[in-house]
Amino acid sequence: NLHISIDASSSMNGEKLRNTMINVVAMCKAVDMIPNLNVQVTFRCTQNEKPYIVMAYDSKTDKFTKVKQMFGGLRPNGTTPEGLCFEAIKKAFIPINNDVDSYFLNLSDGQPYYGGPGFYYSGDSAERHTNKMVKMIEGMGIRTLAYFIGDGYNDGYDARAFKNMYGKGAKMIDVQNVNQITKTLNQLFLQK
Q: Would you tell me the crossing angle of helices 180-190 and 15-33 to the nearest 10 degrees?
């Protein structure tokens, strides 16, 4: 099982989201043709001053036509509530067992941020919370992979924050080379 969570905040607008979506749609199509492999795709952002997550596709219950019909109409919005959204969907994660290997793939371009009425989620405390949620996911036996989709830079505060949140599963990639994600997943699946 593969759960793909996509940062749909405003900063992903343009080439970052377009290249990400090309790869995610390709992964969904591949899963559609491979027995014994399932995928869920979620998008996270903020909407009307609240963290917002959409379970956009689940190959166990949805036909691939849903991806073709709806994904093109999705638009980024708001900020990046990272760990808050992971906590909200933890019941949707499928833990490993004797019959299932499970992976969580996160695609994002930044640090967690959410500001609402009387609530501020940013900086070190938001990074620690996101890391706590990643450890909770890993505690279910789910292997986590996180890709920082950058604009050609792999250092600085954003990169450090990303590595603090996602640990050894954090990878830095350029928006021009998002297909690195697909290559990594192919290598993982071929090991099984």
A: 30
Task: Give burial (CB, 10 Å; 0-12/13-18/19+) of 148.
Answer: buried
31 closest CA partner among 73, 70, 72, 3 = 3
DSSP state of 39: E
Rounded Cα gap, residues 120 and 36, in angstroms: 42
CA distance 160 to 1: 29
Q: Read off the tokens for 20.
A: 């990400």
3-state class of 159 per DSSP? helix
pTM above 0.85, yes or no: yes
Q: Report how far residue 10's alpha carbon sits from residue 102's, in angstroms, rounded to the nearest whole number.
A: 29
The H or E element containing residue 154 is: none
d(CA 44, CA 58) in angstroms, rounded, equals 15
Q: pLDDT tens digits for 29-66?
A: 988 998 888 999 999 999 888 888 999 999 999 999 99
Q: Does residue 182 register a pLDDT over 80?
A: no
Q: Any idea what DSSP says for residue 72?
A: G
Sign of CA pseudo-dihedral 149, 93, 78, 72: positive
**Burial tier of 58 (Cβ tally within 10 Å: 0-12, 13-18, 19+):** middle
More confident residue, 111 or 132: 132
Q: Name the helix (H) or strand (E) containing 157.
A: helix 157-166
